[in-house]
Amino acid sequence: MITAVGVVLAALSMQYCRLNGWTNPEMYHWGCYSDVAALWSARELDQSPGAPFNTDYANFEYPALTMILASLVAWVTHGLDGLFGETGLAYWEMRNSLLYWDLTFLLAAAAWFVLTLTVMKAAGNRPWDALIVATSPAIIFGIGINWDIFPAAALALAILFYLRRQWVLAGVFIGIGVSLKLYPLFLLGAAFTLTLRAWLIDRQLLPLGGNKTDDDAAAESETDEPPRPAATKEHIADWVDFARLTLAAVVSWLLINIPVMLVSFESWLEFYEFSASRAPGWSSLWQAWGALREAPMEPETVSVLSLVFFTLSCAAVLAVGLTAPVSPRMVQLLLLIVAAFMIFNKVYSPQFMMWLLPLIALAAPRWRDVGIWTAAQVFHFWVIWMHLAARDSDASVQHLLDERVYLAAVAIHMLSTLYICAVVLVDIYQPQRDVIRQSLGQRSRTP
């Protein structure tokens, strides 16, 4: 029910553009810009629903499952317009981009319900933490921009099945998520870290006390006895489980991507080539640094630096996972990896705030911290639109947003994500602060 209210608010936030069209600069002033509506014509979906798979049309720079989703909705759009376009039921009045956006939004709303329910299930003893997802302005303002709610839901499902030790299903949803966006892949990194930690402790290469699990900690608090070392066979089983998870993810990804490759390998490859060659995007660390220096950074340089810093961040997360006093929760490590990817990525679009939100709900569900992070993200959301509007406006300078405000907003959104990372790190190294571990005596499996 609460998510339904959020869906209504999200639709209302886009209402100006729905009624008047996605025109520049009004769509920025009203905060209702949408890639979905823009790409209807820019990627020639208005000409052919199969345009993402045909190199005769404009390149569609998204992963395979997003290509499929965009194309299927375009087929339905053309079909409905063909059936009802000449009747009184055609509320879109020849504005097929509106119908296309509406149909995509309906699917996105369904994904939001799935996301909320999944977080509620994954939260275990704290189902109320799903309110963070159900009521978030991050989703209200971000859901209508692009297709990012779908990988968020897929990753949440992967987390849920991981916590239930249903490795194949978890892997399947990782593969689905990676076919929509890259970042669900990072769950494998978090899982690898925990598996390696347990194996190293079993080989006595890490201190025994560093492998307390939630159940170990609960038992110790009741009996005052030190935890027993896990059997070697159990850690062999951990590697087998990790292999199942990884194999299921690979097979799932291949089953989605191979058909697209066979239809048009060049179209499938476009996402990866575009990601490698594109210039730094608005609100990224690299674009802001170039603006400060008044010398934009070269795409090749940014690609290298982005990869290097993200790799170093992953190494740091691995070190955290191996040195924590008790075994970190998988979602804590996953949040740190995804946050590093967002900070050092070549692009930071306003809807990317939806990537981190479900992980915050499962890793650090304190309303104060959520509020701080959300306020910073929403501030950036409005500032980036005003900045883009100023670039295309004929108004005099005193009526436009100063670029320094934009750069401050970029810094604030990155600092807010670093703040959440700091909160998670404190919880990892001081596990008694972790509100998830505190719930119900730490007895239930925690994300």
Main traits of this protein?
single chain; 447 residues; mainly alpha; 21 helices; disordered C terminus; transmembrane
Question: What's the short story on this structure?
Answer:
With 447 residues, the chain is mainly alpha-helical.
Number of strands: 0
| Mean pLDDT, all residues | 92
The N- to C-terminal Cα distance equals: 25 Å
The parts where pLDDT drops under 50 for at least 5 residues are 213-231, 442-446
H/E order of the elements? HHHHHHHHHHHHHHHHHHHHH
Domain unit count: 1
The biggest sheet amounts to: none
From the alpha-carbon coordinates, what is the Rg to the nearest angstrom?
Answer: 23 Å
What coarse outline follows from CA principal-axis ratios? globular
β-strand amount: under 5%
User: Helix- and strand-based class?
Assistant: mainly alpha
Number of helices: 21
Which bin fits the share of residues in helices?
55-70%
Transmembrane segments: 60-77, 98-119, 139-162, 242-265, 302-324, 330-349, 370-390, 405-429
Protein name: DUF2029 domain-containing protein
Keywords: Membrane, Transmembrane, Transmembrane helix
InterPro entries: UCP010361
Structure characterization notes:
With 447 residues, this protein is mainly α. The protein has one domain (2-442). 68% of the residues lie in helices and 0% in strands. The chain is built from 21 helices and no strands. This is DUF2029 domain-containing protein. The chain crosses the membrane at residues 60-77, 98-119, 139-162, 242-265, 302-324, 330-349, 370-390, 405-429.
